[in-house]
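If you are new to this repository, start here. Below is one unmodified record pulled from the training split, so you can see the exact layout before writing a loader.
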Amino acid sequence: MAVTPTQPDDMAALKAVSARMGADPLLIQSAGGNTSVKDGQTMWIKASGTLLSDAVSGEIFVPVDLLAMRTALVEDRPDADQPAKFLLMDGALRPSIETSLHAVFEHRAVLHVHCVNTIAQAIRQDAEIVLGDRLSGLDWAFVDYTKPGANLARQVRGKLGPNTDVVVLGNHGLLVAGKTVEAARLKISDVVARLSVPAAWDGIPDIAALDSLGAGSDYEPAEDTVSHQLAMNLWRVKAATIGSLYPDHVIFCGIGATAVEPDEAVTAASDRVIASGMSVPVFLIVPGKGVLLRKGISDGARALVRCLADVLIRVPDHTPLNYLTEAQNLELLDWDAEKYRQSLNAGNTANAG
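And here is the target side for that same chain:
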């Protein structure tokens, strides 16, 4: 039986920061994101599939062997992508699949969020230029999209200077590090403020029309007002349906999005997607009217539909965007780590973080 290390004194501070971030849908959606603190050769990190919002009310952090993880990364060993191999406690929880991403920082505390304002700029083809203007004066780096895991950690490690404490992950999110939990908290507050952009709203949904369209189908209008904004602007409809913009969307909602065509029934739109070889759509965009969600989908899926709207209402119309490639989409769908997280929440389908 493994002897669980004692949690460090600043663990309470990390839990408090984590819970606050986890409750903010502009920073964290469902089980996305992760936080950590290092204590000597041990690193405490959020467990896979758990919610940062539960950081204070539950035990969601697990200890890993930091030295062994770093050695596996340096030696390019396959087990660098198997964080459970480095777990220093018994039990059902596993370390986050992004454990290696935290390990490459020398800083004591690391906060990783799927910040909506960051993603809105990290999906742009001119992302580094836009980000450079806003993050001027900070020691920061930009890393092109790479599937989360050891390879991404190595890409980040290659961009880190001695004092780099901010990393923007293309089509993914934000990493901030600090010598203390409080330093990391202050830094992420500064970065998020710098990257904040106004949201553009374009009309209100036609709930009556959506109810009528969804009648007799497996779909119903989204309950939140933000999600409907995907349908209120034709550029936004196109941007959403071209493909996938970040990994959590693929994991929770499948590849891209589907718009209902003029005079097309909701069931016909769903059948059209299935006939193309794709999964049953989690949601459908009805241009000019709003968004329909499939009945019974998980809270996580609902959060990621809203996330897509939250992101795109912060992108100026006609901005050229980077999309995940077909290969990148498929490697996310065929990912053992994701299948594990889904198994943790059989009644709540996919999880991330």
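Two things worth knowing about this chain: The longest helix spans residues 181-195. The longest strand covers residues 34-39.
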